[in-house]
UniProtKB/TrEMBL annotation:
Reactions this protein catalyses: GTP + H2O = GDP + phosphate + H(+)
Record's protein name: Signal recognition particle receptor FtsY
Alphabetically ordered keywords of this record: Cell membrane, Cytoplasm, GTP-binding, Hydrolase, Membrane, Nucleotide-binding, Receptor
Homology family: Belongs to the GTP-binding SRP family. FtsY subfamily.
Assembly, per entry: Part of the signal recognition particle protein translocation system, which is composed of SRP and FtsY.
EC class name: hydrolase
Binding positions (GTP): 212-219, 294-298, 358-361
Comp. bias regions, Acidic residues: 47-84
Chief localisation class: membrane
Length: 416
């Protein structure tokens, strides 16, 4: 069975309802028309700590706080529809969930797909046979999608070998092989098909530690995750450990209030480790299932920040053996290779266990997902595919590739 056929059977068993299809098309249209600059939450820091404005942190706080209401309106609209029991058990519910995930990835990756697919189709149209020139241009297409130079070189080598093995001559047949290799590139030598969910502590309190520079959507992601965990029946506590940035505590507090979860906070400038300690004690006393810890993200004081994070981590380890159960690094997909640089910096200084990639719907270079996984060997755990509370999704490489090749997959199906 062809790989496109497998993806279609996995995610789109039944033809989509016309109303759903129209809804997806409208969302894609909005996504394509929206300017990347409108989605930027004030991220202007680079690894050397340079800023484009002297008052960046104050501006960032105002912009993020003003945007909270847009996200939080979704709480009231979705709360009654959430499955309070967590994961679906009925096979039909599982199929419906997979179809929903597929449509979200299709909509969320509209910018990347429209850029990537058009270039692939153009390449296939210009070459009748698979030769060295074809692979050289394909290499440029993949690099332009931010898949990463090292990852692309590895993929091209494997693709050439696979084309020879299958004796593929027609360039149209290469599209399907490319999709296969993208999935293999993500998984590497690991068992394919396993979606890496967030770890949960079966014996008590689960602690997630969020790290990342200012402006990448860290606090917003924490709010969305808190809402989703509560909808799954979990009791959640938030710890406002970002005591450095003006407005960060208030921002997290607003998210907590609207999500209906407990927020532990101190005054601005307090010791973050003390906040996290109190958060742990509060979570224990309230018999919470999950504690989510926010942290500061100022890279201009890199040494101080990393020492601070190390101290926070020691407190967590001391109070809850085996914790934190996830150290999640939040990156902004729209910053491209700058996100890769941030990932390397944090990976060197903290034990990052997973990546949260925000604003994937706001970039035409979604290949950064594969670059991060390939170069750093850190799994992408969550991705932001939109601005709604429900648009934070567990990353599924097969759904990701489906989102990239959805148009080609449907064309293939029409032809057969």
């Amino acid at each position: 069975m062809g790989f496109f056929k497998k993806l279609k059977e996995k995610f789109v068993e039944e033809p989509m309802d016309k109303a759903v299809e129209e809804s997806i098309q409208k969302e894609e249209s909005k996504t394509i028309e929206s300017d990347d600059a409108d989605r930027d939450e004030g991220f202007t820091e680079n690894l050397e700590g340079e800023t484009e404005t002297e008052n960046e942190e104050e501006l960032e706080s105002v912009e993020e706080t003003e945007g909270i209401d847009e996200h939080l309106e979704e709480f009231d609209e979705t709360e009654d529809d959430e499955n309070q029991e967590g994961q679906p058990h009925d096979p039909e519910e599982v199929e419906d969930k997979e179809a929903s995930i597929a449509s979200k990835f299709k909509t969320g990756l509209a910018k990347t797909r429209n850029s990537f697919t058009s270039k692939i189709n153009d390449l296939v149209a210009r070459y009748r046979t698979v030769d060295e020139d074809f692979f050289e241009e394909l290499e440029e297409v993949l690099i332009s999608a931010d898949v990463g130079v090292n990852a692309v070189m590895e993929m091209i080598d494997e693709l050439q070998m696979e084309v020879k093995r299958r004796n593929i001559k027609d360039t149209r047949q290469v599209k399907e092989v490319i999709s296969e290799k993208l999935v293999e590139l993500y998984y590497g030598d690991e068992d394919q098909g396993e979606v890496e969910e967030l770890k949960m502590n079966p014996d008590g309190l689960t602690i997630y530690l969020f790290v990342g520079v200012n402006g990448v959507g860290k606090t917003t992601t924490i709010g969305k995750l808190a809402h989703q965990l509560k909808a799954d029946g979990k009791k959640v506590t938030l710890a406002a450990g970002d005591t450095f940035r003006a407005g960060a505590i208030d921002q997290l507090d607003v998210w907590g209030q609207r999500a209906g979860v407990n927020v532990v906070k101190h005054s601005e400038g307090s010791d973050p480790a003390a906040v996290i300690y109190d958060g742990i004690q509060s979570a224990k006393s309230k018999k919470a299932d999950v504690l989510i810890c926010d942290t500061a993200g100022r890279l201009q004081n890199k040494v101080n920040l990393m020492n601070e994070l190390a101290k926070v981590k020691r407190v967590i380890e001391r109070e809850v053996p085996g914790a934190p159960h996830e150290v999640l690094l939040v990156l902004d997909a729209t910053t491209g290779q700058n996100a890769m640089s941030q990932a390397k910096t944090f990976a060197e200084s903290t034990d990052v266990s997973g990546i949260v990639l925000t604003k994937l719907d706001g970039t035409a270079k979604g290949g950064i997902v594969l670059a991060i996984r390939n170069e750093l060997d850190i799994p992408v755990k969550l991705v932001g595919l939109g601005e709604k509370v429900s648009d934070l999704e567990t990353f599924d490489p097969h759904a990701f590739v489906y989102g990239l090749f959805a148009d080609m997959i449907e064309e293939e199906d029409d032809e057969t």
